[in-house]
């Protein structure tokens, strides 16, 4: 709901908000320019003295005004010539005609009304309201994403568009909230939607005596020029007319003969509040504030572009379902938890089969769980598991929503995963247990599908059909991902002597094009999906190179019986694979100069080698690497030696389980190096771990003990983005 509240006005009003933002940024420099060109108004000069000096130079004075831009002006008439001039507030000397910049007038009108009169003013007011909604919802979403308001300065992860959107939004959010809130108030006030001030001095008549020199009027002598807003002179031939004076304190009528105060209406709290709102929105009288608000407004087009890019990508990735009825009218609700969209394909097959059987089916992400879903005759949950038992992206909020949900419906849970992982379908098991704990009736026992097996999915469909008392055939054919042909150009072999064959493989686009085969831009730590012959299910390998290197590099260990690893190890130079890139922005060094601690074993060192290679700035990087034998599987040995010379790598600590010193593991090196690691973590170091799950678990246990004397734990470092893993 919060995301919809944020994205809907942003996408629909992107162009209009960009115009408001750019014009707001342009006119924000006006207070600073006025501050440079307008004389200071200092205390010590009375309004009477200023009026006397001005009156001495002109036949008739209509009014003296302090303009919003800080200029003191006089409206005068000399014979048949009328004019408005700028005056020195200290001496009353003329400074030339007062002119308003036509460029700024145009920009201001465009900003306030889109050059369309009252209709445009109303549109600008609605735009300010939309910006307020966007700013508030954006702040809430960013805080929620980063772990709370206290975590707003944590590193922002995600795609380039997500990172830019978040960083720009974090910079501009306070200014945009202030600008939009005050803009809404000013717009509502201009249309009479807010209470109006009634502070106006009574229209009383003067005494009728002969007019005294303005410099001799006691009431004007008592007012300092710094407090003046406007002084209107009485009509020349009307002795009953009085001076009208507006100051920051209120409005007064002053007798032109005696100088007595005839009437006074003090400024109300509403008047003062309106003045404050105007200053906060325009920066008039506070040029530094104006420039800050302008910079915030200048961020609006960039936020609009990145926001629309993110929206388009989400929309493109959103699965489409023919005949997807509303949740309220559905008898069957399918909720999907997916990280890489493959589970959505199974959901589409199920949705189509149930619809063909006469059911009214509604399909959505598990994150969208709502009370209305419990009104359906049945709820079917299809979910994958991310990493070591974690929720996939489209199901991350499901358990929290389930915990506060009243109502229940007959439910069946189908998990998708890989039996090679210790927590096979671990998240599906967690969901099933949570539903059982809340007393949801079982439509079917929980079932698991191994590695996208169409046969196991079809069998579950037959079981579901039996529960529904009709035949249900689920003939699922996975849609193959869009791939790019890559040609093997180089390989390095390691580990055969110790029973752990590992290869560093480097690919390039056929024909030697220098664009990595038109693959999307990628960085070390992103994933290369490889489709082995005869399979539609990709296997993923961490990339050790970036698209700037004109090569696609992965590190692959041969797994007994492994379909894809066997295929890759059998490749000869010139052979080709079908592959694609998937971004993995959560496994990447944060920007900056803080130290990096890289920990990997075996083939897991691949992306870490890529991080070292990319360290052209020479930030402190400390690598801990574990293997079996220094003579057999010391991956990247020569490259690491060169990187130490180049200062791209600060230190290298290796551990070999079959080494000449009796053998050690990477966690042993970490334990022995505890004091230095604690010092690095005090400096704000980020830790990145890549490799097998057993290694990662041992490293976690060791590091937890290392950092506890600092009053920290790994959970805290993980929440701050300072401890990240890529394990398999």
TrEMBL record:
* Stretches assigned to the FAD-binding FR-type domain: 481-590
- Domain of life (superkingdom): Bacteria
Asked if the record carries the keyword Disulfide bond, the reply is no
One MF term in GO for this entry?
flavin adenine dinucleotide binding
One family name in Pfam for this protein? Flavodoxin_1
InterPro entries recorded: FAD-bd_FR_type (IPR017927), Flavodoxin/NO_synth (IPR008254), Flavoprot_Pyr_Nucl_cyt_Rdtase (IPR001709), Flavoprotein-like_sf (IPR029039), FNR_nucleotide-bd (IPR039261), OxRdtase_FAD/NAD-bd (IPR001433), PepSY-ass_TM (IPR005625), Riboflavin_synthase-like_b-brl (IPR017938)
Q: Per its UniProt record, what Gene3D superfamilies does this chain match?
A: 3.40.50.360, Nucleotide-binding domain of ferredoxin-NADP reductase (FNR) module (3.40.50.80), Translation factors (2.40.30.10)
- Transmembrane residues, as ranges? 122-147, 168-188, 289-312
> Is Ligase among the key words of this record?
no
Q: Where is the Flavodoxin-like domain?
A: 332-465
Q: Which GO terms describe its cellular component?
A: cytosol
Q: Which UniProt keywords apply?
A: Flavoprotein, FMN, Membrane, Transmembrane, Transmembrane helix
Q: Which PANTHER family match?
A: NITRIC OXIDE SYNTHASE-RELATED (PTHR19384)
Name of the protein in its database record: Nitric oxide synthase
């Amino acid at each position: 709901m919060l995301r919809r509240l944020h994205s809907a006005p942003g996408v629909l009003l992107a162009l209009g908000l960009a115009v408001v933002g750019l014009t707001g940024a342009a006119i924000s420099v006006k207070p600073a320019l006025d501050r440079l060109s307008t004389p200071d108004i200092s205390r010590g000069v009375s309004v009477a003295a200023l009026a006397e000096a001005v009156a001495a130079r002109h036949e008739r004075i209509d009014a003296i005004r302090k303009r919003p831009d800080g200029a003191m002006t006089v409206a005068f008439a000399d014979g048949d010539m009328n004019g408005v001039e700028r005056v020195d507030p200290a001496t009353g000397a003329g400074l030339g005609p007062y002119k308003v910049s036509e460029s700024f007038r145009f920009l201001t009108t465009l900003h306030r009304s889109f050059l369309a009169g009252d209709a445009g003013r109303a549109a600008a007011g609605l735009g300010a309201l939309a910006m307020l909604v966007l700013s508030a919802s954006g702040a809430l979403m960013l805080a929620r994403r980063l772990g709370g308001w206290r975590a707003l300065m944590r590193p922002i992860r995600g795609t380039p568009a997500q990172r830019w959107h978040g960083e720009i939004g974090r910079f501009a959010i306070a200014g945009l909230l202030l600008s939009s809130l005050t803009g809404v108030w000013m717009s509502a006030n201009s249309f009479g939607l807010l209470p109006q001030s009634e502070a106006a001095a009574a229209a009383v008549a003067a005494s009728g005596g002969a007019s005294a020199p303005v410099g001799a009027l006691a009431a004007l002598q008592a007012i300092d020029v710094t407090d003046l807003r406007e002084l209107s002179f009485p009509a020349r031939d009307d002795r009953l007319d009085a001076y009208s004076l507006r100051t920051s304190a209120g409005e007064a009528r002053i007798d032109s003969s005696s100088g007595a105060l005839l009437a006074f209406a003090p400024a109300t709290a509403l008047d003062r509040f309106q003045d404050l709102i105007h200053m906060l929105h325009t920066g008039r009288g506070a040029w530094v504030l104006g420039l800050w608000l302008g910079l915030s407004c200048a961020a609006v087009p960039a936020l609009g572009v990145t926001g629309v890019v993110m929206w388009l990508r989400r929309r493109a990735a959103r699965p489409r379902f023919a005949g997807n009825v509303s949740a309220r009218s559905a008898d069957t609700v399918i909720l999907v938890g997916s990280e890489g969209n493959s589970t959505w394909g199974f959901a589409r097959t199920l949705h189509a089969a149930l619809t063909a059987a006469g059911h009214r089916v509604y399909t959505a992400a598990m994150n969208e769980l709502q009370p209305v879903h419990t009104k359906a005759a049945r709820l079917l949950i299809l979910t994958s598991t991310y990493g070591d038992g974690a929720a996939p992206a489209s199901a991350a909020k499901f358990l929290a929503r389930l915990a506060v949900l009243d109502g229940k419906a007959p439910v069946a849970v189908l998990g998708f995963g890989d039996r090679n992982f210790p927590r096979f379908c671990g998240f599906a098991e967690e969901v099933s247990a949570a539903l059982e704990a809340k007393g949801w009736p079982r439509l079917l026992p929980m079932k698991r599908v191994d590695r996208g097996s169409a046969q196991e999915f079809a069998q579950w469909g037959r079981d579901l059909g039996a529960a529904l008392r009709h035949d249900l055939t689920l003939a699922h054919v996975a849609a193959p991902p869009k791939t790019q042909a890559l040609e093997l150009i180089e390989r390095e072999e390691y580990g055969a002597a110790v029973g752990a064959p590992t290869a560093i493989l480097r690919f390039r686009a056929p024909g030697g094009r220098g664009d990595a085969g038109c693959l999307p831009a990628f960085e070390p730590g992103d994933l290369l999906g490889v489709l082995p012959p005869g399979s539609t299910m990709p296997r993923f390998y961490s990339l050790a190179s970036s698209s700037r290197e004109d090569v696609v590099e992965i590190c692959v260990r041969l797994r007994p019986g492994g379909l894809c690893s066997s295929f890759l190890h059998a490749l000869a130079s010139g052979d080709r694979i079908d592959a694609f890139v998937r971004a993995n922005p959560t496994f990447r060094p944060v920007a900056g100069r803080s130290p990096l601690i890289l920990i990997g074993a075996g083939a897991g060192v691949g992306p870490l080698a890529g991080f070292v290679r990319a360290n052209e700035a020479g930030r402190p990087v400390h690598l801990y690497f574990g293997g079996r034998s220094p003579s057999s599987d010391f991956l990247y040995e020569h490259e690491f030696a060169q990187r130490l010379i180049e200062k791209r790598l600060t230190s290298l600590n290796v551990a070999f389980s079959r080494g000449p010193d009796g053998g050690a593991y990477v966690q042993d090196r970490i334990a022995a190096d505890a004091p230095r690691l604690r010092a690095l973590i005090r400096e704000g170091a980020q830790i990145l771990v890549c490799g097998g799950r057993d290694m990662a678990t041992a490293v976690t246990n060791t590091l937890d003990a290392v950092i506890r004397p600092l009053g920290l734990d790994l959970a805290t470092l993980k929440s701050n983005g300072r401890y990240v893993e890529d394990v398999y």
